[in-house]
Amino acid sequence: MIIKGFEVGPIAANCYIIGCEETRDAAVIDPGADAPRIMQWLKKLNLNCKYIILTHGHIDHIGAVSGIYEQTGAQVLIHTKDADMLTNPNSNLSWMTGGEMKVKAADRLLEEGDKIQVGKLTIEVIHTPGHTQGGITLKVENNLLTGDTLFAGSIGRTDFPGGNYIQLIGMIKTKLMIFPPITSVFPGHGPMTTIGDEAKYNPFMRM
Q1: Secondary structure letter of residue 188 according to DSSP
Q2: I need a surface site. Which of 71, 79, 83, 176 has the fewest CB within 10 A?
């Protein structure tokens, strides 16, 4: 498996490329900005983008969706409960950046337990609402891509529309902390971590 992460946009959101080494098929996760740079990485890694998968619908995670789609034709995937955020500047918070942005609508709506086949890799959808109501975590092999659900030493904000602090804590504890301590966590912002480290050191896990 290939996994490449890098920061994009003014809020430094993490964009990830997940690729199958055998078939060279790939998914771009949370292309928040800078489509040309994302395309450069796909070319450098010799990967063909088949899917654009969004962990949630905030602008810093969706800003380059249309740009990537126009160059790859990749299907856009998002959870059902965040689907309207792709085309609604109020709910995707683009108005907070001084403009209004709409991106390509979803080709496929995701639900808990859905599986996305990327070459010979299987990505599993875990619905983890709380930051947004359609927030998801993606599991691929022994890795979790948590979006803005879980960070190293912190959790996602819950003061935006659709946020719910109690719900978010519950989702993390019941759906993410159940994985083995060595499970790698690739968050939507900041450095990677592990489930074991978050269980030990994340102050929100003691609440």
Answers
A1: S
A2: 71
CA 42 to CA 17: how far, in whole Å?
8
Cα(106)–Cα(78) distance, integer angstroms: 7
Element (DSSP H or E) covering residue 115: strand 115-118
d(CA 179, CA 200) in angstroms, rounded, equals 14
pLDDT digits (tens, 9 = 90+) for 123-152: 999 999 999 999 999 999 999 999 999 999
Write down the pLDDT at residue 95.
Answer: 85
**Is the alpha carbon torsion for 147, 65, 90, 136 positive or negative?**
negative
CA atoms of 76 and 68, how far apart (whole Å): 10
